[in-house]
Design brief:
The complex is a heterodimer of chains A (about 325) and B (about 260).
Chain A lengths: L15 H4 L4 H20 L6 H26 L7 H19 L1 H24 L5 H20 L12 H5 L1 E2 L2 E2 H19 L1 H11 L1 H6 L4 H27 L10 H12 L10 H20 L4 H25 L1
Antiparallel strand pairs in A: 1-2
Helix pairs in contact in A: 2-13, 3-8, 3-11, 3-12, 3-13, 4-5, 4-6, 4-11, 5-11, 8-9, 9-11, 12-13, 12-14
Chain B lengths: L6 E10 L2 E11 L4 E6 L5 H8 L7 E6 L2 E3 L4 H6 L2 E4 L11 H5 L6 E2 L9 E2 L1 H14 L16 H13 L5 E5 L7 H16 L3 E5 L3 H7 L2 E6 L2 E7 L5 H10 L3 H9 L1
Parallel strand pairs in B: 3-10, 3-11, 6-9, 9-10
Antiparallel strand pairs in B: 1-2, 1-4, 4-5, 7-8, 11-12
Helix pairs in contact in B: 5-6
Classes of the chains: A mainly alpha (about 325), B alpha/beta (about 260).
Bound molecules: adenosine-5'-triphosphate (ATP) and magnesium ion (MG).
Chain lengths: ~325, ~260
């Protein structure tokens, strides 16, 4: 009787598809992941060993945390070039704080500094009106300089012994970094799909004027988005420093590009408010499997960088192609 | 109709840098009245209405709601007073579905597992209310879970109208609601406006299509280079007179130059 509740399969009102914004793109990604696993297991049987997979999870966890924040930022219409250098800055500064004031305060300071830097980026973009590209490029340079000034360019290694557990520990055979990362993915996905905040982030990414005219406090949401991302960058810095057993100014180098790559490969489009945390999870998994698989078959990391570049371009091209078609 | 106006805009001025967009624009509207706001391109119609919705702050002039002076610092404030605007560019989020757009900025929430400190979107309730709303307005869409970008221009306009009347609006402003529509869809929009008037909702409709204005408006207000130059009851005027007011300010020499190009 009601003509409004439609029967179109792609728009089932309460279907899991619409709830998780998990489109054909996501399904395609799952197939790519399975195919990659089969190919790499065939090329090198070690690929499929528990030790190797745990290793992959441990290595990927940090990228996952940063990519979550990056995805939220990208869904709101921005992107962050500063993440890698901010990780270095947080790594050295929070390590020094940890050495002086102990484990707990050191860990809290990492997240606190991250939040503050994120909020600063957000204010520059929302209130001062700088383009995200400029604001975060400036932050990239400033954070890099500050990190080198604070550390004198040297590694810092005198953190408490227990700190190493975050990066190297296990709970029920699961690496701690992977568990942290998984938790971050679940929380971010909940935020983006289930809450008003997430809805407003999508709205701003899709049409900022429409969000503004609807009475959404766009500036506030943007500053919150960047702060959230900053806090996650702080968390990533913590895990990475613990894993490396030393703090260093250039610890997170390249993380900004890798996190953007994982997001884009996952199918989240730059500047259009389309995509999801779940997509990025799959994007991170693809990046991880690719890197690890190519390592196992002895492809040098130089070639891997080239490969990832090609994959990013292809992913964006396919996305645009689909958009033109629809 | 009560005898004091719902909204009054008095002698509004607004400049964008060197461009004086509004220089003495005024208007008042009674509850349940439909006003047609007309004027040439760049006369300042959209800007005038954006001052009322809090998108722009006037340089000078007064806004009164029910006789009381107000200032709207942002669209949220004017929306909470019951003023809704359908913007010329529709102002829907194309990447969200109909339900999300109808409730954008006013989402309904629930507490999962009755936890007081967590609130999540109440998707089922919002969906149900959207379906009811569209049925009430006799708007047909394939699915309320369809992304807005997948819909036709007419459907998008219908969603934008539904969204504007979803929450007990007292005044709905429509900026060129019929410009991009097919004839049949225009009739639908005009029907909705008549329904709104019957419900006591005031409507301001901006349009270049004078026949639409003459179809629904009780009163017509003409804006010329940012100034209100005429107010006429629809019954007491003609299209010719209104057209003269719209173009009247153009100096003969200028119009010759313009047409000579
Ligand atoms: N945000 C803005 N910044 C600068 N100038 C603006 C802005 N908005 C409007 N203007 C200028 O103000 C004047 C009035 O524009 P407005 O859009 O209000 O006209 P309009 O009557 O709605 O025209 P149209 O019929 O073409 O929609 C124009 O000269 C326009 O260029
Ligand atoms: Mg206009």
């Amino acid at each position: 009787m009601s003509q409004n509740t439609d029967t179109a399969p792609d728009a089932s009102p309460n279907g899991i598809m619409s709830k998780f914004r998990f489109d054909m793109n996501g399904l395609g990604m799952v197939f790519i992941i399975i195919a990659l696993c089969i190919v790499f297991s065939w090329l090198n049987p070690n690929f499929y060993s528990g030790t190797n997979l745990r290793n992959v999870a441990r290595q990927t966890a940090i990228l996952g945390i940063v990519a979550c924040g990056q995805t939220v930022v990208i869904l709101s219409g921005g992107f962050d070039l500063s993440a890698g250098m901010v990780i270095g800055l947080i790594s050295v500064s929070s390590s020094l704080i940890m050495i002086d004031h102990g484990l707990v305060i050191g860990c809290l300071s990492a997240i606190g500094i991250g939040l503050a830097i994120g909020a600063f980026n957000g204010i520059m973009i929302a209130k001062a009106g700088l383009p995200a590209f400029i604001a975060t490029l400036a932050m990239y340079s400033a954070a890099r300089g500050l990190a080198l000034i604070i550390s004198g360019g040297l590694p810092i290694t005198d953190m408490p012994f227990e700190f190493g557990w975050i990066g190297a520990g296990q709970i029920l055979t699961m690496p701690v970094p992977a568990l942290i990362s998984l938790l971050v993915f679940l929380l971010c996905s909940f935020l983006m799909v289930k809450t008003r905040f997430g809805r407003h982030v999508y709205a701003i990414g899709g049409n900022q004027d429409s969000a503004l005219f609807s009475g959404i406090n766009v500036d506030r949401v943007k500053i919150l988005v960047w702060s959230l991302h900053g806090g996650l960058v702080g968390l990533a810095a913590l895990v990475l420093t613990s894993r490396a057993v030393s703090a260093h100014a250039t610890l997170g180098e390249g993380m900004e590009l890798e996190s953007i790559a994982a997001t884009v490969i996952g199918g989240t489009a730059l500047g259009r408010g389309r995509g999801s945390i779940l997509n990025t999870f799959l994007g991170v998994v693809v990046m991880a499997i690719l890197t690890n698989g190519l390592n196992l078959i002895n492809v040098s990391s130089y070639y891997q960088m080239v490969a990832i570049g090609i994959i990013i371009a292809t992913a964006v091209y396919v996305d645009q192609f689909k958009r033109v078609k629809s | 109709m009560s005898n004091h106006p719902l909204i009054e805009l008095i002698d509004i001025h607004k400049a964008f840098g060197p461009v004086q967009a509004l220089s003495g624009a005024s208007l008042s509207i009674m509850p349940g009245e439909v006003i047609g706001l007309v004027g040439d391109n760049a006369a300042g119609k959209s800007t005038f209405m954006k001052v009322l919705t809090g998108v722009h702050q006037p340089d000078s002039g007064e806004i009164k709601v029910n006789g009381e002076r107000v200032t709207f610092r942002d669209p949220g404030e004017s929306r909470r007073t019951g003023i809704e605007m359908i913007y010329q560019n529709l102002a829907l989020a194309p990447n969200l579905d109909v339900v999300a757009n109808v409730f954008l900025g006013r989402e309904l929430l629930r507490h999962p597992l009755s936890l007081p400190f967590i609130s999540v979107l109440d998707e089922n309730l919002m969906e149900q209310k959207t379906i009811e709303l569209l049925q009430r307005l006799k708007i047909n869409v394939k699915s309320v879970r369809l992304l807005v970008e997948k819909m036709s221009g007419g459907q998008q306009q219908a969603v934008a109208i539904a969204r504007s009347v979803a929450f007990e609006a007292k005044l709905v402003i429509m900026d060129e609601p019929t410009a991009a529509l097919a004839v049949k869809e225009v009739g639908k929009v005009l029907d909705i406006i008549n329904n709104l008037r019957a419900d006591g909702v005031s409507v301001i409709i901006i349009s270049h299509r004078l026949q639409d204005i003459f179809n629904v408006a009780d009163r017509i207000i003409v804006l010329q280079t940012g100034k209100t130059i005429a107010t006429r009851r629809t019954k007491e005027t003609t299209m010719d007179e209104i057209v003269k007011f719209i173009v009247g300010g153009v100096q003969p020499e200028l119009s010759q130059i313009a047409s000579g190009r």
